[in-house]
Amino acid sequence: MTPITPISRMYDPYYTHHSYDPNYTHLSYDPYYTHHSYDPNYTHLSYDPYYTHHSYDPNYTHLSYDPYYTHHSYDPNYTHLSYDPYYTHHSYDPNYTHHSYNHMTPITPITHITI
To answer: Strand locations in the chain, DSSP E?
Structure first.
């Protein structure tokens, strides 16, 4: 994660971010951005109308479109590298990676991404 100075010169009528987030830059138009909690790894590089993650999750990067993501609890091992329509895990599960449906494969959590 490369630190970026927030852009304040751009007109953004939908900016409703009310909490401290040093990595928020909002480089593209996103009318659905309602993320109100501190998440240092959130960059939101693509349009995602279903993002409603309101809890602290340092490993959440959301590299692909995932309309079923409704994970609202802390899960340090959640990476979700592939589309998984059955993921409804709402409690702490340190061993859950779910790389593919009904098949467990150990995965190292993503903790740093260079963009």
So the answer is: none
Give the three-state DSSP class for 94.
coil
Indicate the number of domains in the chain: 1
Residue 100 — φ and ψ, nearest 5°? -140, 160
- CA distances in angstroms from 105 to 61, 63, 98, 100, listed in the order given: 19, 19, 7, 8
The predicted-structure confidence for 35-92, as pLDDT tens digits, reads as follows: 433 344 444 433 343 444 433 344 444 433 343 444 433 344 444 433 344 444 433 3
The torsion defined by the Cα of 66, 70, 73 and 78, in degrees rounded to 10, comes to -20
Tokens representing 112 are 């740093």
Indicate the DSSP class of residue 85. Answer: T
Is the separation of the CB atoms in 80 and 87 below 8 Å? yes
